[in-house]
Amino acid sequence: MDTGIARARLGEAAAAEPLIAAALRREPDNHRGRAVHGFWLAITQLRRGNVDQACDAATQALGTAAVVGSERITGHLREFHQRLCPGQRGARGLGLRGAATGCPALSVSEWLRP
Predict the structure, then answer these.
(1) CA–CA dist 105, 103 (Å, integer)
(2) Model confidence over 22-44: pLDDT tens digits?
(3) Distance separating alpha carbons of residues 30 and 24, to the nearest angstrom
(4) How far apart are CA 90 and CA 101, in angstroms?
(5) What is the CATH number assigned to the segment(s) 3-111?
(6) What gap in Å lies between CA 59 and CA 66, rounded to an integer?
(7) What DSSP element (H or E) covers 109?
(8) I want to staple 54 with a disulfide (CB 3.0 to 4.6 A). Which of 46, 62, 81, 106 is the partner?
(9) Nearest-angstrom CA–CA distance, 69 and 17
(10) Which residue has the higher pLDDT, 71 or 32?
């Protein structure tokens, strides 16, 4: 586990966010790593109250998770969705853009349906 994720797990979102963002930049070709770091970036941004940034990071992680086909990563993104409070869910759509996956843009609830 890297330092950024460890700090995020300890609840140190402010310290974790730049470390996770740097890890994300270091692995442009590692799709699984990008999806995992994208999830943790979304979680840390959400914990810091940056809902729009968190949704953007989760959307990117979701696109990468779709390429990887990992149920574990998709489960992490379901966890992100559950952490959004009800008022924030409708405030900003979380979905994929069709060019990335050949799929139409969908809401997070459509993509992450159990």
Answers:
(1) 7
(2) 999 998 889 889 989 999 999 99
(3) 9
(4) 23
(5) 1.25.40
(6) 11
(7) helix 108-111
(8) 46
(9) 25
(10) 32
What is d(CA 26, CA 74) in angstroms, rounded to the nearest whole number? Answer: 22
Find, among 31, 83, 25, the residue nearest to 62 by Cα.
31
CA–CA dist 58, 37 (Å, integer): 10
Residue 99 Cα distances to 39, 63, 76, 96, 103, angstroms: 21, 10, 23, 9, 7
Q: How many CB atoms lie within 10 A of CB 30?
A: 15
**CB count, 10 Å around CB of 69?**
10
Joined together, the tokens standing for residue 20 give 């996770």
Neighbours of 89 (CB within 10 A): 17
Domain ranges of the chain: 3-111
pTM above 0.90, yes or no: no
The DSSP code for 102 is S
